[in-house]
Design brief:
This protein is an alpha+beta fold. The strands form three sheets. Strands 1-2-3-5-4 form a five-stranded antiparallel β-sheet, with helices on both faces. A three-stranded antiparallel β-sheet has the order 6-8-9. It has 14 helices and ten strands. Helix 9 crosses helix 11 and helix 10 packs antiparallel against helix 11. 50% of the residues lie in helices and 11% in strands. A hairpin with a 5-residue loop joins strand 2 and strand 3. The structure holds 5-S-methyl-5-thio-alpha-D-ribofuranose (SR1) and magnesium ion. Magnesium ion (MG) binds next to loops.
Protein backbone atom coordinates (compact mmCIF):
# COMPACT_ATOMS: atom_id res chain seq x y z
CA UNK A 1 0.00 0.00 0.00
CA UNK A 2 1.29 3.49 -0.88
CA UNK A 3 2.04 6.16 1.71
CA UNK A 4 -0.99 8.19 0.74
CA UNK A 5 -3.51 5.41 0.15
CA UNK A 6 -5.10 5.87 3.54
CA UNK A 7 -6.12 9.15 5.18
CA UNK A 8 -4.03 10.67 7.96
CA UNK A 9 -3.47 14.26 9.03
CA UNK A 10 -0.19 15.31 7.44
CA UNK A 11 2.60 17.22 9.17
CA UNK A 12 4.87 19.67 7.34
CA UNK A 13 7.49 17.09 6.24
CA UNK A 14 4.81 14.73 4.99
CA UNK A 15 3.19 17.50 2.96
CA UNK A 16 6.56 18.17 1.29
CA UNK A 17 6.92 14.50 0.42
CA UNK A 18 3.26 14.33 -0.68
CA UNK A 19 3.80 17.22 -3.09
CA UNK A 20 6.87 15.57 -4.61
CA UNK A 21 4.89 12.39 -5.14
CA UNK A 22 1.70 13.92 -6.49
CA UNK A 23 2.63 17.05 -8.42
CA UNK A 24 4.54 16.40 -11.64
CA UNK A 25 6.56 19.60 -11.63
CA UNK A 26 7.95 18.75 -8.14
CA UNK A 27 9.08 15.20 -9.11
CA UNK A 28 12.69 16.26 -9.70
CA UNK A 29 12.90 18.76 -6.87
CA UNK A 30 15.57 18.03 -4.23
CA UNK A 31 14.91 20.68 -1.62
CA UNK A 32 11.23 20.84 -0.92
CA UNK A 33 10.11 22.82 2.10
CA UNK A 34 6.68 22.89 3.62
CA UNK A 35 5.32 25.28 6.24
CA UNK A 36 1.91 25.33 7.90
CA UNK A 37 0.49 28.82 7.30
CA UNK A 38 -3.20 28.36 8.10
CA UNK A 39 -4.86 30.93 10.31
CA UNK A 40 -8.46 29.92 9.68
CA UNK A 41 -10.79 28.21 12.11
CA UNK A 42 -11.19 24.81 10.49
CA UNK A 43 -8.45 23.38 8.23
CA UNK A 44 -4.67 23.01 7.80
CA UNK A 45 -2.95 24.99 5.07
CA UNK A 46 0.66 24.42 3.96
CA UNK A 47 2.86 26.41 1.64
CA UNK A 48 5.26 24.16 -0.28
CA UNK A 49 8.32 25.54 -2.09
CA UNK A 50 11.35 24.11 -3.84
CA UNK A 51 14.81 25.18 -5.01
CA UNK A 52 13.40 26.15 -8.44
CA UNK A 53 11.15 28.81 -6.90
CA UNK A 54 8.07 26.74 -7.51
CA UNK A 55 5.36 26.96 -4.90
CA UNK A 56 1.91 25.50 -4.27
CA UNK A 57 -0.52 25.46 -1.38
CA UNK A 58 -1.91 22.24 0.11
CA UNK A 59 -5.10 22.43 2.16
CA UNK A 60 -6.18 19.44 4.22
CA UNK A 61 -9.25 18.83 6.37
CA UNK A 62 -8.93 17.37 9.86
CA UNK A 63 -11.69 15.78 11.92
CA UNK A 64 -11.32 18.34 14.70
CA UNK A 65 -11.63 22.07 13.98
CA UNK A 66 -8.81 24.44 14.88
CA UNK A 67 -11.07 26.87 16.69
CA UNK A 68 -12.35 24.30 19.21
CA UNK A 69 -11.42 20.71 20.07
CA UNK A 70 -15.06 20.12 20.91
CA UNK A 71 -16.12 20.84 17.35
CA UNK A 72 -15.72 17.90 14.96
CA UNK A 73 -16.65 17.76 11.28
CA UNK A 74 -16.55 15.16 8.51
CA UNK A 75 -13.38 15.42 6.46
CA UNK A 76 -15.40 14.97 3.23
CA UNK A 77 -16.20 18.69 3.41
CA UNK A 78 -12.98 19.50 1.56
CA UNK A 79 -14.33 17.91 -1.65
CA UNK A 80 -17.11 20.47 -1.82
CA UNK A 81 -14.63 23.29 -1.36
CA UNK A 82 -12.27 22.09 -4.12
CA UNK A 83 -15.16 21.51 -6.47
CA UNK A 84 -16.80 24.91 -5.92
CA UNK A 85 -13.44 26.64 -6.44
CA UNK A 86 -13.22 24.95 -9.83
CA UNK A 87 -16.78 25.98 -10.64
CA UNK A 88 -16.11 29.58 -9.59
CA UNK A 89 -13.04 29.64 -11.81
CA UNK A 90 -15.43 29.13 -14.73
CA UNK A 91 -18.01 31.70 -13.59
CA UNK A 92 -15.53 34.31 -12.36
CA UNK A 93 -12.20 33.57 -14.09
CA UNK A 94 -9.14 35.03 -12.40
CA UNK A 95 -10.95 35.75 -9.14
CA UNK A 96 -10.21 32.44 -7.37
CA UNK A 97 -7.03 30.37 -7.02
CA UNK A 98 -6.47 27.60 -9.56
CA UNK A 99 -6.93 24.08 -8.19
CA UNK A 100 -4.25 21.65 -9.47
CA UNK A 101 -5.29 18.43 -7.76
CA UNK A 102 -8.05 17.10 -5.52
CA UNK A 103 -7.27 13.98 -3.47
CA UNK A 104 -10.33 12.14 -2.20
CA UNK A 105 -8.26 9.78 -0.03
CA UNK A 106 -6.11 12.32 1.79
CA UNK A 107 -9.02 14.81 1.87
CA UNK A 108 -6.83 17.60 0.60
CA UNK A 109 -6.33 19.67 -2.50
CA UNK A 110 -3.36 21.41 -4.07
CA UNK A 111 -3.83 24.92 -5.42
CA UNK A 112 -2.12 28.02 -6.69
CA UNK A 113 0.11 29.77 -4.17
CA UNK A 114 -1.08 33.33 -3.62
CA UNK A 115 1.87 34.54 -1.51
CA UNK A 116 2.25 37.61 -3.70
CA UNK A 117 -1.18 38.60 -2.31
CA UNK A 118 -2.11 39.34 1.28
CA UNK A 119 -5.21 38.58 3.31
CA UNK A 120 -7.55 41.55 3.13
CA UNK A 121 -8.31 41.60 6.86
CA UNK A 122 -4.66 42.08 7.81
CA UNK A 123 -4.24 44.68 5.08
CA UNK A 124 -7.29 46.55 6.37
CA UNK A 125 -5.89 46.50 9.89
CA UNK A 126 -2.75 48.14 8.42
CA UNK A 127 -5.16 50.64 6.77
CA UNK A 128 -4.10 49.75 3.23
CA UNK A 129 -6.49 50.50 0.38
CA UNK A 130 -7.25 48.46 -2.74
CA UNK A 131 -8.59 50.33 -5.77
CA UNK A 132 -9.63 47.14 -7.58
CA UNK A 133 -11.51 45.56 -4.69
CA UNK A 134 -15.05 46.91 -5.24
CA UNK A 135 -14.93 46.07 -8.94
CA UNK A 136 -13.61 42.54 -8.41
CA UNK A 137 -15.68 41.48 -5.42
CA UNK A 138 -18.91 42.57 -7.11
CA UNK A 139 -17.99 40.70 -10.30
CA UNK A 140 -17.25 37.65 -8.16
CA UNK A 141 -20.55 37.80 -6.23
CA UNK A 142 -22.70 38.57 -9.25
CA UNK A 143 -21.13 36.04 -11.62
CA UNK A 144 -20.94 33.15 -9.18
CA UNK A 145 -24.46 33.56 -7.85
CA UNK A 146 -26.54 34.51 -10.89
CA UNK A 147 -25.02 31.64 -12.87
CA UNK A 148 -26.71 29.18 -10.50
CA UNK A 149 -30.23 30.60 -9.97
CA UNK A 150 -33.46 28.95 -11.14
CA UNK A 151 -34.25 31.67 -13.66
CA UNK A 152 -30.88 31.16 -15.40
CA UNK A 153 -30.17 27.43 -15.41
CA UNK A 154 -32.45 24.53 -16.16
CA UNK A 155 -34.51 23.99 -12.98
CA UNK A 156 -33.68 20.25 -13.12
CA UNK A 157 -29.96 21.05 -13.16
CA UNK A 158 -30.47 23.51 -10.33
CA UNK A 159 -32.08 20.84 -8.16
CA UNK A 160 -29.21 18.45 -8.87
CA UNK A 161 -26.67 21.12 -7.96
CA UNK A 162 -28.59 21.99 -4.83
CA UNK A 163 -28.36 18.33 -3.79
CA UNK A 164 -24.70 18.05 -4.71
CA UNK A 165 -23.78 21.08 -2.65
CA UNK A 166 -26.01 20.44 0.33
CA UNK A 167 -23.82 21.29 3.31
CA UNK A 168 -25.67 20.51 6.54
CA UNK A 169 -22.68 20.47 8.89
CA UNK A 170 -21.20 23.79 7.87
CA UNK A 171 -24.65 25.38 7.62
CA UNK A 172 -25.33 24.26 11.18
CA UNK A 173 -22.27 26.23 12.31
CA UNK A 174 -23.74 29.39 10.74
CA UNK A 175 -27.23 28.58 12.04
CA UNK A 176 -25.74 28.52 15.54
CA UNK A 177 -22.97 31.11 15.42
CA UNK A 178 -24.70 33.70 13.22
CA UNK A 179 -28.40 33.11 13.68
CA UNK A 180 -28.89 31.85 17.25
CA UNK A 181 -26.14 32.19 19.86
CA UNK A 182 -25.59 35.95 19.55
CA UNK A 183 -29.13 36.46 20.85
CA UNK A 184 -29.21 34.07 23.80
CA UNK A 185 -25.79 32.42 24.34
CA UNK A 186 -27.59 29.09 24.52
CA UNK A 187 -24.32 27.19 24.05
CA UNK A 188 -22.57 29.32 26.64
CA UNK A 189 -19.65 30.22 24.41
CA UNK A 190 -20.28 33.84 23.47
CA UNK A 191 -17.31 36.13 24.06
CA UNK A 192 -18.74 39.40 25.31
CA UNK A 193 -16.14 42.09 26.05
CA UNK A 194 -16.55 42.72 29.80
CA UNK A 195 -17.10 46.51 29.57
CA UNK A 196 -20.03 45.86 27.21
CA UNK A 197 -21.66 43.04 29.17
CA UNK A 198 -24.63 44.99 30.50
CA UNK A 199 -25.07 46.91 27.26
CA UNK A 200 -25.21 43.64 25.27
CA UNK A 201 -27.72 42.19 27.72
CA UNK A 202 -30.12 45.08 27.33
CA UNK A 203 -29.51 45.95 23.66
CA UNK A 204 -29.14 42.45 22.19
CA UNK A 205 -30.27 39.65 24.52
CA UNK A 206 -33.33 41.59 25.71
CA UNK A 207 -34.36 43.38 22.52
CA UNK A 208 -37.51 41.52 21.52
CA UNK A 209 -37.95 43.39 18.22
CA UNK A 210 -34.39 42.53 17.19
CA UNK A 211 -34.82 38.86 18.12
CA UNK A 212 -38.06 38.59 16.15
CA UNK A 213 -36.37 39.99 13.02
CA UNK A 214 -33.30 37.78 13.60
CA UNK A 215 -35.58 34.73 13.74
CA UNK A 216 -37.14 35.71 10.41
CA UNK A 217 -33.66 36.03 8.89
CA UNK A 218 -32.73 32.62 10.29
CA UNK A 219 -35.76 31.19 8.51
CA UNK A 220 -34.55 32.80 5.25
CA UNK A 221 -31.10 31.24 5.70
CA UNK A 222 -32.66 27.83 6.33
CA UNK A 223 -35.14 27.92 3.46
CA UNK A 224 -34.07 30.31 0.71
CA UNK A 225 -32.19 28.05 -1.71
CA UNK A 226 -31.69 30.85 -4.20
CA UNK A 227 -28.14 30.42 -5.54
CA UNK A 228 -24.90 28.57 -4.89
CA UNK A 229 -23.22 31.04 -2.55
CA UNK A 230 -19.73 31.30 -1.03
CA UNK A 231 -21.23 31.21 2.44
CA UNK A 232 -18.40 32.88 4.40
CA UNK A 233 -17.31 35.92 2.40
CA UNK A 234 -15.51 37.92 5.09
CA UNK A 235 -12.21 39.75 4.64
CA UNK A 236 -10.28 36.68 5.87
CA UNK A 237 -11.58 34.87 2.76
CA UNK A 238 -10.11 37.38 0.31
CA UNK A 239 -6.53 37.71 -0.92
CA UNK A 240 -5.56 41.04 -2.51
CA UNK A 241 -2.88 43.06 -4.21
CA UNK A 242 -3.40 46.57 -5.53
CA UNK A 243 -4.64 45.15 -8.82
CA UNK A 244 -5.81 41.63 -8.06
CA UNK A 245 -8.45 39.97 -5.89
CA UNK A 246 -8.76 36.24 -5.19
CA UNK A 247 -11.57 34.73 -3.16
CA UNK A 248 -10.67 31.63 -1.13
CA UNK A 249 -12.24 29.26 1.40
CA UNK A 250 -15.73 28.59 -0.02
CA UNK A 251 -16.17 25.62 2.33
CA UNK A 252 -19.47 27.02 3.69
CA UNK A 253 -20.95 26.99 0.18
CA UNK A 254 -24.56 25.85 -0.25
CA UNK A 255 -27.73 26.92 -2.02
CA UNK A 256 -28.71 29.93 0.08
CA UNK A 257 -29.67 33.60 -0.16
CA UNK A 258 -27.46 35.70 -2.45
CA UNK A 259 -27.63 38.44 0.17
CA UNK A 260 -25.55 36.25 2.47
CA UNK A 261 -22.43 36.97 0.39
CA UNK A 262 -23.04 40.66 -0.25
CA UNK A 263 -24.11 41.19 3.36
CA UNK A 264 -20.87 39.71 4.65
CA UNK A 265 -18.79 42.07 2.53
CA UNK A 266 -20.82 45.05 3.79
CA UNK A 267 -20.38 44.01 7.43
CA UNK A 268 -16.63 43.51 7.19
CA UNK A 269 -16.19 46.91 5.52
CA UNK A 270 -17.92 48.36 8.58
CA UNK A 271 -15.45 46.53 10.87
CA UNK A 272 -12.56 47.96 8.84
CA UNK A 273 -14.09 51.43 9.13
CA UNK A 274 -14.54 51.06 12.90
CA UNK A 275 -10.85 50.19 13.23
CA UNK A 276 -9.83 53.14 11.04
CA UNK A 277 -11.89 55.50 13.22
CA UNK A 278 -10.25 54.29 16.43
CA UNK A 279 -6.82 55.04 14.99
CA UNK A 280 -8.06 58.33 13.47
CA UNK A 281 -7.09 57.43 9.92
CA UNK A 282 -9.60 59.60 8.07
CA UNK A 283 -8.11 58.86 4.64
CA UNK A 284 -8.62 55.14 5.15
CA UNK A 285 -12.14 55.66 6.54
CA UNK A 286 -13.10 57.78 3.52
CA UNK A 287 -11.82 55.08 1.19
CA UNK A 288 -13.80 52.40 3.06
CA UNK A 289 -17.01 54.43 2.78
CA UNK A 290 -16.46 55.04 -0.93
CA UNK A 291 -15.81 51.33 -1.37
CA UNK A 292 -18.94 50.43 0.60
CA UNK A 293 -21.00 52.68 -1.64
CA UNK A 294 -19.41 51.25 -4.79
CA UNK A 295 -19.84 47.65 -3.67
CA UNK A 296 -23.60 48.03 -3.17
CA UNK A 297 -24.19 50.05 -6.34
CA UNK A 298 -21.89 47.99 -8.57
CA UNK A 299 -23.61 44.85 -7.34
CA UNK A 300 -26.99 46.24 -8.43
CA UNK A 301 -25.68 47.46 -11.78
CA UNK A 302 -23.86 44.23 -12.65
CA UNK A 303 -26.62 41.95 -11.43
CA UNK A 304 -29.09 43.88 -13.58
CA UNK A 305 -26.85 43.58 -16.66
CA UNK A 306 -26.23 39.88 -16.14
CA UNK A 307 -29.95 39.29 -15.60
CA UNK A 308 -30.65 40.72 -19.06
CA UNK A 309 -27.95 38.50 -20.60
CA UNK A 310 -28.61 35.23 -18.81
CA UNK A 311 -32.21 34.84 -17.66
CA UNK A 312 -34.12 32.21 -19.66
CA UNK A 313 -37.28 31.74 -17.58
CA UNK A 314 -40.38 33.19 -19.29
CA UNK A 315 -41.98 34.56 -16.13
CA UNK A 316 -38.71 36.13 -14.98
CA UNK A 317 -38.82 38.31 -18.08
CA UNK A 318 -42.13 39.92 -17.03
CA UNK A 319 -41.95 43.66 -16.35
CA UNK A 320 -40.75 44.48 -12.86
CA UNK A 321 -39.50 41.00 -11.91
CA UNK A 322 -35.82 41.93 -12.20
CA UNK A 323 -36.26 45.05 -10.04
CA UNK A 324 -38.25 43.10 -7.43
CA UNK A 325 -35.63 40.31 -7.37
CA UNK A 326 -32.72 42.71 -6.88
CA UNK A 327 -34.68 44.58 -4.21
CA UNK A 328 -35.15 41.38 -2.20
CA UNK A 329 -31.44 40.56 -2.53
CA UNK A 330 -30.53 44.01 -1.20
CA UNK A 331 -32.95 43.67 1.70
CA UNK A 332 -31.49 40.24 2.50
CA UNK A 333 -27.98 41.72 2.27
CA UNK A 334 -28.81 44.36 4.83
CA UNK A 335 -30.27 41.75 7.17
CA UNK A 336 -27.22 39.51 6.82
CA UNK A 337 -24.81 42.44 7.26
CA UNK A 338 -26.59 43.19 10.53
CA UNK A 339 -26.42 39.59 11.73
CA UNK A 340 -22.72 39.39 10.86
CA UNK A 341 -21.98 42.69 12.64
CA UNK A 342 -23.70 41.43 15.77
CA UNK A 343 -22.30 37.89 15.81
CA UNK A 344 -18.67 38.94 15.30
CA UNK A 345 -18.88 41.22 18.36
CA UNK A 346 -20.95 39.00 20.65
CA UNK A 347 -20.35 35.43 19.43
CA UNK A 348 -17.41 33.05 19.65
CA UNK A 349 -15.85 33.80 16.21
CA UNK A 350 -14.63 37.39 16.49
CA UNK A 351 -12.68 39.67 14.14
CA UNK A 352 -9.16 41.02 14.56
CA UNK A 353 -10.28 44.48 13.33
CA UNK A 354 -12.03 44.87 16.69
CA UNK A 355 -10.29 42.55 19.17
CA UNK A 356 -6.89 44.00 18.26
CA UNK A 357 -7.96 47.42 19.59
CA UNK A 358 -5.94 47.69 22.81
CA UNK A 359 -7.50 50.75 24.40
CA UNK A 360 -10.44 49.49 26.46
CA UNK A 361 -12.62 52.57 26.03
CA UNK A 362 -11.96 52.71 22.27
CA UNK A 363 -12.83 49.03 21.83
CA UNK A 364 -15.97 49.44 23.91
CA UNK A 365 -17.13 52.32 21.69
CA UNK A 366 -16.13 50.54 18.46
CA UNK A 367 -18.13 47.48 19.47
CA UNK A 368 -21.21 49.54 20.28
CA UNK A 369 -20.86 51.37 16.97
CA UNK A 370 -20.87 48.04 15.08
CA UNK A 371 -23.75 46.70 17.14
CA UNK A 372 -25.90 49.81 16.60
CA UNK A 373 -25.37 49.58 12.84
CA UNK A 374 -25.96 45.83 12.97
CA UNK A 375 -29.26 46.27 14.79
CA UNK A 376 -30.46 48.83 12.27
CA UNK A 377 -29.43 46.65 9.32
CA UNK A 378 -31.54 43.83 10.77
CA UNK A 379 -34.58 45.75 12.01
CA UNK A 380 -34.78 48.36 9.26
CA UNK A 381 -33.50 46.17 6.43
CA UNK A 382 -36.26 47.32 4.08
CA UNK A 383 -34.79 50.85 4.20
CA UNK A 384 -31.32 50.19 2.79
CA UNK A 385 -31.19 49.85 -0.98
CA UNK A 386 -28.30 51.95 -2.28
CA UNK A 387 -24.67 52.52 -1.45
CA UNK A 388 -25.59 55.97 -0.13
CA UNK A 389 -28.15 54.43 2.26
CA UNK A 390 -25.43 52.29 3.87
CA UNK A 391 -22.94 55.17 3.97
CA UNK A 392 -25.50 57.39 5.72
CA UNK A 393 -26.21 54.61 8.21
CA UNK A 394 -22.51 54.38 9.08
CA UNK A 395 -22.03 58.14 9.28
CA UNK A 396 -25.11 58.67 11.43
CA UNK A 397 -23.84 56.21 14.05
CA UNK A 398 -20.45 57.82 14.68
C1 LIG B 1 -16.26 27.18 13.81
S1 LIG B 1 -15.87 28.14 12.51
C2 LIG B 1 -16.13 29.78 13.04
C3 LIG B 1 -16.31 30.73 11.94
O1 LIG B 1 -15.20 30.67 11.08
C4 LIG B 1 -15.61 30.57 9.74
O2 LIG B 1 -14.83 31.39 8.93
C5 LIG B 1 -17.06 30.96 9.74
O3 LIG B 1 -17.24 32.35 9.64
C6 LIG B 1 -17.50 30.44 11.05
O4 LIG B 1 -18.68 31.02 11.53
MG1 LIG C 1 -12.97 30.27 6.28
Amino acid sequence: MGKYDEYFLMKEAEVADYTKEKIDTFKNSEQIESKEIGDGNLNYVFKVTDEHNQSVVVKQAGHVTRISEDMTLTIDRIKREASVLQLHDKYAPGLVPEVYLYDDVMKCFVMEDLSDHEILRGAFISHDTFPQFAEDITTYIVNTTISTIDFVIDPQDKKEMQQEYTNPELCEISEDLVYTEPFNDYNNRNLVFAPNKEWVESEIYNDEVLKLEAAKLKNDFLTKGQALIHGDLHTGSVFVTKDSTKVIDPEFTFYGPIGYDLGNVIAHLVFAYANGKVYENEGFCDWVLTTLEEVVDLFTEKFSQKWDELVIDHMAKETGVKEWYIDTVLEDSSGVAGMELIRRIVGMAQVADIVSIENEQARKEAERFCLRIGKSCVINRANYRTGRDFVHLVQSNI
